[in-house]
Amino acid sequence: MSSASLKSPLSACQEEKGSTWDVTEDYASNASSKNWLVRKLLTWGVEERGIAPVPLSERVDRPYSKVFFIWFSMNVNILSFSAGTLGPAIFGLGLRDACLTILFFNLLCCAVPAYVGTWGPTLGMRQIVISRYSFGYYGVIVPCALNLITMIGFSILNSIVGGQALASVSSNDLSWTVGIVVVALISLLVSFCGISVLNWYERIAWIPVVITFVIALGVGGKHLSNPPPLEPATASTILSFASTLAGFAVTYSGLSCDFSSYFKPNVSRWKIFLSAYLGFLLPLIFFQCLGAAVAVAVPSVPDWEAGYAGGNVGGLLEAMLHPVGGFGKFLTVLLSLSVAANIAATFYSISINLQVLIPTLLSVPRYIFSIVATAIVVPLAIVGAHRFYDALVNFLGLIGYWASAYVGIIITEHLIFRKNDASLYNKHAWNTPGRLPPGIAAIAAGVGCFGLVIPSMEQVWFTGPIAKTTGDIGFEIAFVMSVVLYLPLRWLEIRWRGFV
C-alpha cells in the first residue's frame, strides 16, 4: 500500500459528521418506550446509562473532590489494611522494610490509574470502551474478561473481610456468611442507583472508618512502638512484596475513566490527576503501613493473636478495639461496612464491563448488571471465606501481570499513536467494529510479553528461573515488553489498515 493512500488519524476524524461530538441523538433515552417501573426509577435519579458515551449536555461535573473521594473512600477500608499485613505475615519483612516498600512502590504505581483517569473528561467514554481504540471491538473482550475477573476478585475479598468483621462482634452468633450477604446488599443498593448516589456515598463513607482506625491506633498504639528486630530483607523478598502491592494499585486502571467521564471536557487534567493520585496514595500508604505495623506486633499481643487466628483480619481489628468495650463492637461494625464503598464502585464498573463483554446486552439497563454482579460475588465469597490469606496472596500476585501489560499498551496507544490528543480518537466509531483497530497488535503484544513474564514470576505454586535470582519482576517485565512489542506491531497494523 502506498503512503499516499494512507489517511492521517486527523483527516479520518475530520470526515466524521461535524467537529463537535455529541451522541445524544443516537443514544438518548426514550422515556415513552419504557415501562412504568423503569420510568419511576429514572425519576428517582437511578442512572441507566451503560457503555454509551456521555453526551456533552450531560458532562457537567466540575468539583475535583468527586474524583478524590471516589478513590479515597474505595481504599479507606479493611482490605487496604490487609494488604499491608502481607509484608510481615507472608514475606517475612520487618516493619521498616515493609513500610519503605509500601511508600515507594505506591508513589509509582498510583500514578498509573490516576493518569489514565484524565482521559475520561476529554473523551466522555468509559475505560473499557476507550480500550477498544487499542484492542478493537472484539479483541477488547480479552482484557474486559480479565478486568471482570479482577473486579469480582476484589469484591470477593472485600466481602470476606467485611463479613469477618461483622461476624466478629456477635461472639460467633452471626456467621461469616450472613456478614458477607449484608455487606454485599448494601453495596448493591449504592451501585444500583448509579453515579450520582455513588458520588454522594463515597464523599461520606470514609469518615467513620478513619475515626475508627484512629481510635484503634490510640488504644493499641502502645504495642506498635517497639517492633521486634527481623533479619534484613533481601532484594528478592522486597520485589515479591512490591509485585503484590502493584497488583493492588495498578489494576484500578481498568476502571479509571468510569468515574470521570461525566466531567466537563475543559477541566484541568492536572487537577484531575492530582485529585485521583492523592485519593489513591494517602489511604494506601497509611492503611498498608498500619497493617504492616500491626502484623509485626501480633505475636507479642495474645489477644490480637487469638483474634487473628486463621488469618481473620476482622477478628484482629475487633481485638484491637476490645479495650473500649461495647463501643468497640460498634466501631467494628462500622469497619465491616467500610468495604461497601469499594464494592459498590466496583459493582458499578462490573455492570459496565459486562455490556462490553457481551455486546448484545447494550440495550439492557446498566443497573440490572449490578444485581448480576452481586449474584456472582456472594456465593464465591462464602465459599472462599475460610481461605482468605491464600486467596489474597495468590490473587494480588497474579492480577498485576495482565494489568501491567494492559496499561503499557493503552498508554503507548494514547501517547504515541494518538499523540495525547482527544481529537485523534474517532469518537463516532466506539461501537462500530470496522472503524476501530482490529486489535491484532494489542492482543499479540499482550500475549507475547508473557514469554518473558512467566520466567520472571514468583508464586506459591511456581517460581520461574529468572525469579529464583531476582524475585518477582513479572510486573515490571510485563509493562516494558508490552510497550516494546506493541510499538512495531501497531505501526504495521496502521500501515495495513490505512488509518488509526
Highlighted features:
disordered N terminus; mainly alpha; 500 residues; Hydantoin permease; single chain
Poorly predicted spans: 1-32
**Could you state the oligomeric state of the chains shown?**
single chain
Assess the beta-strand content as a share of residues.
under 5%
CATH topology of the domain at 64-386: Hydantoin permease
Helix/sheet category: mainly alpha
Rg measurement, Å: 23 Å
Largest β-sheet summary: none
Query: Topology as H/E string?
Result: HHHHHHHHHHHHHHHHHHHHHHHH
What does this 3D model show about the protein?
One of its GO terms (molecular function) is transmembrane transporter activity. InterPro entries: Pur-cyt_permease (IPR001248), Pur-cyt_permease_Fcy2/21/22 (IPR026030). It is found in: Membrane. Its main location: membrane. Keywords: Membrane, Phosphoprotein, Transmembrane, Transmembrane helix, Transport. The protein has helices spanning 9-14, 24-27, 36-43, 65-75, 78-89, 95-109, 111-116, 119-123, 127-130, 132-135, 141-168, 176-193, 195-220, 235-249, 269-297, 302-307, 313-321, 326-357, 366-384, 388-417, 440-448, 450-453, 467-470, 474-497. The chain has a domain at 64-386: Hydantoin permease (Orthogonal Bundle). The chain contains 24 helices and no strands. The model is unreliable at 1-32 (pLDDT under 50). Helix 4 packs parallel to helix 15, helix 13 packs antiparallel against helix 18 and helix 14 (235-249) crosses helix 20. The longest helix is centred in the C-terminal third of the chain and has 32 residues, at 326-357. Helices cover 66% and strands 0% of the residues. The chain has 500 residues and is an all-alpha fold.
